[in-house]
């Protein structure tokens, strides 16, 4: 699956909505597992900070289905002007991806149509520090 295909899959679930003080669907994520299964999710933003990122929603769908290994993951957002943007995962999402399965350090994080990097490069100091 190409970066463009993964981006298109995430774009397909973008569905911004508002309900009272809550917003959802402004960011969407799709991941493909080591077994080749696709999972998608959207963000939920709440005024009290209890929401979660689109990557968390996609990962929750994956774990619900009994999978833990991510081969590739992407998140996208559409600007008010209509331009599509690929977003890097925030620090919380990077750590979450790693903790779901340590092998996910090798997961490819899509950063654009022509660019992806292993999570390991985005989370370089993930080992527990040695005693001094």
From TrEMBL:
A GO term from the CC aspect: cytosol
Q: What is the lineage of its organism?
A: Bacteria, Bacillati, Actinomycetota, Actinomycetes, Streptosporangiales
One short Pfam name that applies is dCMP_cyt_deam_1
Tell me which family the UniProt entry assigns to this protein: Belongs to the cytidine and deoxycytidylate deaminase family.
Could you give a GO molecular-function term held by this entry?
Answer: identical protein binding
Q: Print the keywords alphabetically.
A: Hydrolase, Metal-binding, Zinc
**Would the keyword Amino-acid biosynthesis be found if you checked this record's keyword annotation?**
no
Entry keyword annotation includes Metal-binding: yes
Q: What is the name of the protein in this document? A: Cytidine deaminase
> Which InterPro entries does the entry link to?
APOBEC/CMP_deaminase_Zn-bd, CMP_dCMP_dom, Cyt/Deoxycyt_deaminase, Cytidine_deaminase-like
| One Gene Ontology biological process | pyrimidine-containing compound metabolic process
Gene3D superfamilies hit by this protein: Cytidine Deaminase, domain 2
Q: Which organism is it from?
A: Nonomuraea rhodomycinica
Q: Which CDD domains match?
A: cytidine_deaminase
Highest taxon above the source species: Bacteria
Residues forming the CMP/dCMP-type deaminase domain are 11-102
């Amino acid at each position: 699956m190409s970066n463009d295909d993964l981006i298109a899959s995430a774009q397909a679930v973008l569905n911004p909505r508002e309900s009272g003080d809550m917003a959802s669907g402004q960011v969407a994520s799709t991941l493909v597992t080591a077994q080749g299964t696709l999972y998608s999710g959207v963000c939920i933003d709440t005024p009290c900070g209890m929401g979660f990122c689109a990557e968390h929603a996609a990962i929750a769908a994956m774990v619900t289905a009994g999978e833990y290994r991510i081969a590739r993951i992407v998140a996208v957002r559409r600007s008010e002007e209509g331009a599509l943007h690929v977003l890097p995962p925030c620090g919380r999402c990077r750590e979450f991806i790693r903790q779901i399965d340590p092998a996910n350090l090798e997961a490819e994080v899509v950063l654009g149509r022509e660019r992806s990097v292993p999570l390991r490069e985005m989370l370089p100091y993930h080992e527990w520090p040695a005693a001094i």
